[in-house]
Design brief:
144 residues; mainly alpha; Arc Repressor Mutant, subunit A; two-stranded antiparallel sheet; 5 helices; 53% helix; elongated
Length: 144
């Protein structure tokens, strides 16, 4: 498991680990049943205190993202991929909401914001076709 932490970042290191594990699961880099690095291995790899890794893993276990497998260690739980994908979408939705609120406070009108969004989508997804028929109409239809 390849994770990176930024000790000078805004998020506590344990939270960075939690997010990165969830993103790895949501992206399919870790699947249900996959074993994750031990506390000692990850602490050594990231050059951090093992207690920080323990705190991150405990939170992931509390959220039922990781499960303890007796005699072997921690594995990705069976419902974790769907849970992590849903959480990732919720996080992106919240961040987009913040950006749109800022646009409104700045006095931008809907047309201008729409153009900005289309421009950024074209940059972020240059190979995507502009096919409105494939755009989900209901939030619950969105999947990763």
């Amino acid at each position: 498991m390849l994770l990176h932490v930024d000790p000078a970042g805004d998020l506590p290191i344990y939270e960075q680990i939690v997010r990165q594990v969830k993103f790895a699961i949501a992206a399919g880099a870790l699947a249900a049943g996959d074993m994750i690095s031990s506390v000692r291995e990850l602490a050594k790899e990231l050059a951090i205190n093992p207690n920080t890794v323990i705190r991150a893993y405990r939170q992931l276990q509390d959220e039922e993202i990781l499960q303890s497998r007796r005699g072997t260690g921690l594995v990705v739980g069976p419902a974790a991929p769907e849970t992590c994908r849903r959480q990732r979408i919720d996080m992106i939705r919240a961040r987009l909401g913040q950006v749109l609120a800022e646009a409104r406070q700045s006095g931008l009108h809907d047309g201008h914001v729409g153009r900005l969004i289309r421009e950024q989508l074209a940059i972020a997804f240059p190979d995507a076709e502009d096919d409105a028929s494939q755009t989900p109409t209901q939030p619950e239809e969105i999947s990763s």
